[in-house]
Write a structure and sequence with these properties.
The protein has 125 residues and is mainly alpha-helical. It is built from seven helices and no strands. Helix 1 packs antiparallel against helix 2. The protein is globular and about 45 Å long. The model has no long low-confidence stretch (mean pLDDT 93).
């Protein structure tokens, strides 16, 4: 249960709905749910990571960077670090992104995210 008294299973259902809406291309509805999730659970980085990804899809690097920074402030999970690196690159900060790509690859060792981070690191080097 979060600070607002919303049960964890309800938050999980909202995350699932947002994910399904994104997959279906209903980005505006997914974004609305994600904004609500970010407000209900500000310490949960997932919503901000997803909002950063949506902002990148909309070619809005400033919004992507703001959401990725919010995710990173709550978690050093590989996905949050990688989201921040992607937003930095989209914002034109390729050199600044390098240490975050290295960190994401190291934290996610042996996973597809590590492979993606490594490939992107090679692209920006």
């Amino acid at each position: 249960m979060n600070a607002f008294g919303v049960p964890d299973d309800a938050l999980a259902a909202a995350r699932q709905l947002a994910w399904r809406l994104m997959e279906a291309g209903r980005v505006d509805r997914a974004r609305a749910i994600l904004v609500g999730l970010a407000e209900l659970s500000p310490s949960e980085p997932w919503a901000h990571e997803a909002l950063a990804a949506l902002a990148l899809r909309r070619h809005d690097p400033e919004a992507a960077l703001a959401h990725a920074a919010a995710a990173l402030s709550e978690s050093r999970a590989p996905s949050a670090v990688f989201a921040y690196a992607q937003a930095l690159i989209a914002s034109g900060h390729r050199v600044k992104a390098r240490p975050f790509l290295r960190e994401a690859a190291a934290r996610a060792k042996g996973t597809p995210l590590a492979i993606s981070a490594g490939a992107l690191l090679r692209d920006v080097s």
